[in-house]
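Hello,

I think I submitted the FE2/S2 (inorganic) cluster job twice by accident. Can you confirm which output corresponds to this input? Input:
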Amino acid sequence: MARLTINGKTSEVDVQPSTPLLWAIREQAGLTGTKYGCGIAQCGACTVHVDGKAVRSCVLPVSAAVGKRITTIEGLATNGALHKVQKAWVDHEVPQCGYCQAGMIMAVAALLKEKPRPTDADIDAGITNICRCGTFQQVRQAIHAAAKA
Ligand code: FES
Ligand code: FES
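Support: Only one job matched these inputs. Its output is below.
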């Protein structure tokens, strides 16, 4: 058992300490917005925030997240108001199939906290998430729009 705080709610999850956080989030907490893509920290579909930093939850053991603040896509909006990245995503119609987008948005939200006005080079270096639908140009535009919001 481990006690995790996800989106401000503390719950007990019945997993081994070495279980990837992704599975505790999806299967124990029932928050299925965070996706499984590669399982080897390459695609970013599983990105969540741990203490405000973007992490790839498919390779982070639950034991490393105990006592930390975990935020998933379901917890990014506050008091019913979309996060500025989510708003920019809607305005720029970024998602295609959508599978990669929760992880993409979480990665971008963390980037903007560190670099409020990222350059294209900052985006290239900071956002390495893979989108099989090729939404990279819309992602870039929406990041610049969110940075100005
Ligand atoms: S599923 Fe975690 S990086 Fe691909
Ligand atoms: S929108 Fe389809 S994989 Fe990114």
